[in-house]
Amino acid sequence: MRFLDQPPRFLFFTGKGGVGKTSIACATAVQLAADGKQVLLVSTDPASNVGQVFGIAIGNHITAIPAVPKLSALEIDPQGAAQAYRDRIVGPVRGVLPEAVVKGIEEQLSGACTTEIAAFDEFTALLIESPLTAGFDHIIFDTAPTGHTIRLLQLPGAWSGFLEAGKGDASCLGPLAGLEKQRQQYKAAVDALADPLRSRLVLVARAQRATLREVARTHEELAAIGLSQQYLIINGQLPQSAIEQDELAAAIARREQLALAAMPAVLQSLPIDYVALKPFNLVGLDALRLLLVDDTPATERVTLPPAVLLNAPSLSALVDDIAADGHGLVMLMGKGGVGKTTLAAAVAVELAHRGLPVHLTTSDPAAHLAETLEGSLPNLAVSRIDPHDETERYRQEVMASKGARLDAAGRALLEEDLRSPCTEEIAVFQAFSRIIREAGKKFVVMDTAPTGHTLLLLDATGAYHREVSRQMGSKGLHFTTPMMQLQDPKQTKVLIATLAETTPVLEAANLQQDLRRAGIEPWAWVINNSVAASRPSAALLRQRAQNELKEIDAVATHHATRYAVVPLLKQEPIGVERLLQLATPADEAR
């Protein structure tokens, strides 16, 4: 594996949900420890399942892995980090500043933006020389810092005085107010990230066009802020030996080859490794030791019980219930890589095909609805919330209103704040609010951005709701906010998209808990790209199908009040005809 040639001290693994970055990070840690190196494996993912992979509880402290000498692990707790971060900022000013100002600071520190910065705050301590990490030869991070977070840390640091003077209440002043005290540590951390002798960033992807486009965007974003030492792993590629006489396997192999042939040019120049699709679940040491090895044991044929397929509801059944209301908001949510865009398009196309008026839109910057639809359909309107356009509109509005009351220095600081990535979340929220108002008269189907961005959007929605409640409630006036609409199951149906694999299901379950804390009850789960629902004959795929049954059962019995299983199709679901196939019962779709 080229990414393991003369590895530096810091290795970062990043990629969309479901691509296998946690498994590869764990397998790398096991291999380096087997080579005699002292290794620390760190997860910065809120949905971390590193402990599950090794079969032990880890948590927010360095824990030795008993079964692997020289290997320790740490799971950073973002919520705990955020609370400590809030306490550090608010504590010194409590009792000093007026209570109204303190409450304002606490409100600004309540969102997901603060949580992201606080988690970065914790792991930067692992990137600088300290007694905590002095004994480790390698520190491996599962889920690298995003460009979003690093850009925040590179902003100038005069926020505390600006905030205390009461001159600003824009997007990120609260979270940024505490950065100045840590500025030296952050600078050392960012320098370490950008040093190819100390750090290596490994992008993990699948041989899928959408995933490769997304990882290319990540590559360019991180390279633009100095993280240029990058490698690429194409994970889960179907080996030619597994095709046998199976039409589905042959079709998957062709799709993967076409995707790799069309790989974005910025990725082609990177050192690339290929990891073959394995027939087993990547949990436990035996599986991890085999992941990065090419000569894995031959797959034994398995018998796939047909009963689970006969009992699994189709997407069409969910659309029947959605269509019965005549109008409403349908939101597809989930981690990146699970097929939200495709599923949103399939639901919208099926509703329009039934003669119902539908507006299909997306808040995902990486979404390509036009490419997915590949055409038009009566009753279907398509739009995209363009983050760049919405952000520029929002900046102009804020400068014209709040900026008009500031002096030159205040305007300069406000302009700097409005260049932060959090501004985009607020701007997108405003556009989101405009669109969902249409759901009172027609169906609005929304393909949301990956989970982290969606939670930021919900934070903005919640903050707006609380502010309106304070202002309008005190006057006894009736009002309806976007958050109230999202919380009303008669107006909004949230569909959580996932895959029938351990990590995506775990991440979807965590998303469901986040939504419930916001007062939003998911309406249904959709298990996408199910091999089990396609009834393959090739041995490797049959074993993969067998492994899916446990995850499908967990969704059906523990997580979802209703669910649907969408089969993996032979042809990529692009175009109206193939999208309609996704909403067809599995037996008919084959």
UniProtKB/TrEMBL annotation:
InterPro entries: AAA+_ATPase (IPR003593), Ars_ATPase (IPR027541), ArsA/GET3_ATPase-like (IPR025723), ATPase_ArsA/GET3 (IPR016300), P-loop_NTPase (IPR027417)
Domain of life: Bacteria
Pfam family, one: ArsA_ATPase
AAA+ ATPase domain span: 7-226, 326-519
Top EC group: translocase
Chemical reaction(s) catalysed: arsenite(in) + ATP + H2O = arsenite(out) + ADP + phosphate + H(+)
Coiled-coil blocks: none
Keywords: Arsenical resistance, ATP-binding, Nucleotide-binding, Translocase
Enzyme Commission number: 7.3.2.7
Entry-linked PANTHER family: ARSENICAL PUMP-DRIVING ATPASE ARSENITE-TRANSLOCATING ATPASE (PTHR10803), ATPASE GET3 (PTHR10803:SF3)
Annotated NCBIfam families: arsen_driv_ArsA, GET3_arsA_TRC40
Similarity comment: family membership: Belongs to the arsA ATPase family.
Known function: Anion-transporting ATPase.
Entry protein name: Arsenical pump-driving ATPase
Organism: Vogesella alkaliphila
